[in-house]
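Example record

The entry below shows one chain as it appears in the dataset: sequence first, then structure tokens.
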Amino acid sequence: MNDNSYYSSRAVNPAESGDGSPILIVPYLWIGDFVRCHSVVKLMRQRFPDRPVDMLASTLCAPLTDYMPGLRQAIVWDMPRKSLALGQHVGLAKRLKQEGYGTALIMPRTWKSALAPYLAGIPERTGFFGEARYLLLNDLRSGERALPRMVDRCAALALPPGTPSPPAWPAPELKVTPAEAAAWRQKRGLDRDGRQVVALAPGAVGPSKRWPSGAYAALTRRLLADGLAVWVLGGPDEKPLATEIVGDTEARDLTGVLARPFARLGLIASAVVFIGQFAASTYITPFLLDHAHLHSGLVSGVFVGYGCGGILGALIGGRLVARSVVGSFAGSAIAVAALLLGLSLAANTVWLICILVIAWGLAWGIMPLAAQVWQLQAVPGAQEAASAVNVTNLQLSIAAGAALGAILIDSTSLRTVYITAATITLAAGLLAAVFGQMRPKP
């Protein structure tokens, strides 16, 4: 723990340390405000060195907690901003109750931000009066509006009631090891060239709170002219801004879905598996009629079975993906590969072909959901951009798969089409299984 704060020279009152129960901090969940709340973590660790400190976090903010000294863990829970969502609060309360928190510090002023700690029965719940939170908080503080800055208001809740503010608060801190920083640079092709780096983050809640993109572009050119390197950071929603800022300069655009290694891996694996799937499925009718020699009436029944299998697979896939999106993706791809290979070898065994096709529908029914959730998890907080990229990727892959199947049919045989498709889908499954488990930190 750092010693650069107000409480570093203050003796901790043993009675103040409580019973060792953990402390929960409910911070603001915008990224900048979330980082500011690390000052509260430092203060609480100094007041109560024997009590672990946790923070509530959204999916978007949670990766930052890996680099916050003094923090035990993040409780990751996404809440809708514009609705009460009582069921979500009850679910969060159950999760908090499992941790046995003795104290909760609620930074936001809203009524619903204090609801889950109250429902969890946390004994001490501290926060400002806010939206008339008499019942929800039992350590109500006043004077919030007299404090000039957000850090003053947040950190004041970490002090005993009536304690005057210190001249300076402990600074928020994100500690990244040199090895992690080097790995991050390497993955993005940002080799050191001896220049100092200036990082620009143009994103904001809305245009009214954002510096004009033209001003960022002018600054970028000036910094480059002064011999500095410029990186433009942000999520997929900032991609248009970054494109305008970077222009035709050598500045690096690190925004967008494709800037995330885990997202890129998901897109590559999805493209490969969809090419394999549609190389085979596009030509399933001639395969069943000409290669397997099924009569047309039975083929229609097999298609119905394939469709029903797909519906069942989608239903099962929801639970599997909730447990492990990478495992579900890899398992689905490998199963499809095995079934396609089985079809290519089944010859004229009608009952076996029917079973394999229905099982194929079941195994494939999991895949579209797994591919979509992979992208949503890889780019938290930018679901629309991730979905758009995923849909475009899959549409191109479907077209490529159908084209590949046509080329193979013209030059080889239907059996070769299915063996090739099995090999491609197996490669996608192995790619996900091997590299998907090595999910990097953002």
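Notes for this example: The chain has a mean pLDDT of 86. The two ends are 24 Å apart (CA to CA).
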